[in-house]
UniProtKB/TrEMBL annotation, chain B:
Chief subcellular location: membrane
Keyword terms, alphabetized: Cell inner membrane, Cell membrane, Membrane, Transmembrane, Transmembrane helix, Transport
Every ABC transmembrane type-1 domain range: 73-261
This protein's name: ABC transporter permease
């Protein structure tokens, strides 16, 4: 309908329709709202809280408030003045009374190994508030560490209320006494290696899934539906079987007296049992088993959409089968390969249960450390910072995945 | 169409044979581990090795008489059913709303609703652990039910949403034009048509909760341990044949869920074919 054909009486109708449509939209939104509110409380809120904990740094500020206030004016070039020492002594006396020394000691110890001892020994030996003007001397006598600039720089850096300390630590970085970002000490710098390991295992598992999944998806997409539906059970049954059951099955199969080793021994291939589990091999095998269906299903649906006419056309135009496959068939499966690989990779990045059960100490992925720092050592700042890095990687990859799948839907719609 | 008709050259036949051989090996890789542990649960010995010294049901007896295992099975059922019910209500309402809602923010909202599936379990678990501990929801059934509902609802939104997409809205208009009230039309026209979709959504939701272990690891107290959680400690400590009995029970539940889902899918296709 063109604008010219609209008469004046039709305009109110149009407005009425628009109003009705708006009411419908409000009603639709009202139906979605309960879930949005629910997810805010059970999902988005908790994750936002975790991200906040990665930068939250108020422990030291709560325990040593006067010290932090005085140190705000300290330029960090030389030792702080007598006022800072007096404030620290007074803070320590108060914190000892409140029993909160350990809270600050724990946080400061993350930044400077041995700080726990410095603070607790000072709290123990500081019998009374030092005479005015003697705080510097008294504290220095109790623990010579108070005569070092680095000790004070650590307190100032941990003064909060927010910090980049945990996020830097998650990337094996730290701030030195001058506030410059430098590489973390060797004994603490383990996370880049863990991230690299997580990345490598995920990449390896993705590659294995693609190599194993491609022929299966091709077979399922080529066979007549009666047979492919039957074979699909082989893919869907493991998909629906509990992760714990599958992990347990691999342990039973691969352990030193397990079925695989026994069979190999019986066949005379090996004399000594092979070490197949609690190492990288076991992790890769079990994870590939768990994630393979996530590769096969998207590959299958992308191959199913390829018309056999293309291959026939290529053949009739004289293309050898291999050329036709490489030039005609394979390019059309690329979106499926991309979607399946990204999906498997994203899921693999966050894996925790399988490596925890079938991996050795050197095969633990980033999720293991996040769990460890949350429940075992209660270093929640570092757990959250590592979680933030993992979440960032996952979200970025998921965005790429979303674009890819969306693109497929668009082209799929155009073909129809 | 026969697939062999297009295989004219020997090299094509070799390639096809290779595909079949590799696929068969992959199928064995996928299925064999699950099948291999099943007979072990019927062993009369206490070692997880073949050949079996004899057959017995002692490990099932052990499972059924163990208060620890039975309690965990009960917990899995309670948490699974409750979070399925809750996610069905929230997910179905949201799917109905999303089907009608037109906005440029819709992809964003949809991405948010589906994000619990993509975010690694450990991150969700750690976030919930920090968030629920101060308000007393860790070590409680309610906390686990809420957390599992958040994980399960995306599957309900997807399955019910897919059903609604194929739903002909003219049918509800026809019902309205014949004088049916919206509630009557929903009950007699819309509901029967989307019921298979709802059932699939419920199965997915239940399976998600029934299989979940990371959140349970972080949040459950000794009272709320579920079957997968109990298996996790069992595998960590030492694998007794009782675990294989538990595995068989879990797998049986999966097979029943899968078979029901497949039945629903076939029924749906038949209905579509008939229409």
């Amino acid at each position: 309908m063109t604008a010219a054909s609209l008469t004046e009486t039709e305009v109110p109708l149009k407005r009425q329709l628009r109003r009705a449509e708006r009411a419908r939209q409000v009603k639709a939104l009202a139906l979605v709202l309960p879930l949005l509110v629910f997810l805010l409380f059970t999902f988005a809120g908790p994750i936002a809280g975790m991200l906040w904990r990665a930068v939250d740094d108020r422990e030291v500020r709560q325990v040593l408030p006067q010290t932090i206030a005085v140190l705000a004016d300290w330029d960090g070039k030389d030792l702080p003045n007598e006022k800072a020492y007096a404030a620290l002594a007074s803070d320590i006396m108060a914190a000892r009374g409140a029993g909160s020394i350990a809270i600050a000691a724990k946080r400061l110890n993350y930044a400077l190994n041995g700080f726990r001892t410095i603070l607790t020994s000072t709290a123990r030996n500081l019998k009374a508030a030092p005479e005015p003007g003697t705080a510097k001397e008294t504290l220095g006598k109790i623990n010579p560490a108070w005569r070092e600039r680095a000790t004070w720089a650590t307190i100032k850096d941990a003064g909060g209320p927010i910090t980049g300390f945990y996020l830097l630590a998650a990337l094996d970085l730290t701030r030195n006494a001058d506030g410059a970002i430098v590489a973390a000490p060797k004994d603490q710098a383990i996370y880049r290696e863990v991230f690299a390991r997580t990345f490598l295992i995920s990449l390896g598992v993705t590659a294995l899934c693609l190599i194993l999944g491609f022929p299966v998806a091709y077979l399922l997409a080529t066979l007549p539906p009666v047979r492919s539906n039957l074979l699909m059970i082989f893919v869907l049954l493991p998909f629906w079987t509990s992760l714990l059951v599958r992990t347990c099955a691999w342990i039973v199969l691969l352990q030193s007296k397990g079925i695989v080793n026994d069979s190999l021994h019986w066949l005379g291939i090996i004399d000594e049992p092979l070490r197949l589990i609690y190492n990288r091999f076991g992790v890769c095998v079990a994870m590939t088993h768990v994630l393979l269906p996530f590769m096969i299903l998207p590959l299958y649906s992308s191959m199913k959409a390829i018309s056999p006419a293309y291959m026939r056309a290529a053949a009739s135009l004289g293309a050898p089968p291999l050329t036709a496959f490489l030039r005609i068939y394979l390019p059309q499966t690329l979106p499926g390969i991309g979607a399946g690989s990204l999906l498997v990779f994203i899921l693999a990045l966050g894996y925790y249960i399988t490596p925890a059960l079938v991996g050795g100490a050197a095969d633990q992925m980033i999720s293991y450390f996040i769990a460890l720092y949350t429940t075992e050592t209660a270093n929640w700042g570092l757990a959250s910072a590592l979680g933030a890095v993992l979440l960032l990687a996952t979200v970025l990859l998921a965005l790429v995945y979303g674009k890819l799948v969306q693109g497929q839907q668009v082209t799929g719609g155009m073909k129809n | 169409m026969s697939d062999n008709s297009s295989l004219r050259t020997p090299s094509q036949r070799i390639a096809w044979t290779a595909t079949i051989v590799v696929s068969t090996l992959v199928f064995i890789f996928l299925i064999a581990p699950i099948l291999a542990i099943m007979p072990l649960s019927f062993s009369s010995g206490s070692y997880l090795t073949y050949p079996l010294p004899g057959l017995s049901l002692r490990w099932y007896d052990d499972f059924i008489t163990s208060p620890r295992w039975m309690h965990s099975l009960k917990n899995s059922m309670i948490i699974g059913v409750a979070s399925t019910a809750l996610s069905m209500v929230l997910g179905t309402l949201a799917a109905l709303g999303l089907a009608q809602w037109k906005s440029r923010f819709k992809p964003l909202v949809l991405a948010f609703v589906l994000s619990p599936v993509v975010v690694p379990g450990v991150i969700t678990a750690v976030g919930l652990y920090f968030f629920f501990a101060p308000i007393g929801l860790t070590g409680s059934y309610l906390g686990l039910i809420l957390a599992h509902t958040a994980l399960a609802t995306p599957f309900v939104v997807i399955t019910v949403g897919a059903t609604l997409q194929s739903f002909d809205t003219n049918l509800s208009r026809a019902a309205a034009s014949l004088g049916a009230s919206p509630i009557y039309a929903f009950r007699r026209v819309i509901l029967p048509l989307i019921l298979p979709g709802l059932a699939s959504g419920a199965l997915f939701a239940f399976a998600t909760s029934f299989d979940e272990v990371v959140i349970v690891l972080f949040m459950a107290g000794p009272e709320q341990r579920t079957l997968p959680r109990e298996m996790f400690s069992g595998i960590r400590e030492n694998i007794s044949p009782t675990i294989t009995a538990a595995a068989v029970i879990l797998t049986t539940v999966s097979v029943i869920l899968l078979a029901t889902l497949e039945g629903l899918r076939r029924r749906n296709e038949r209905l579509k074919g008939g229409g």
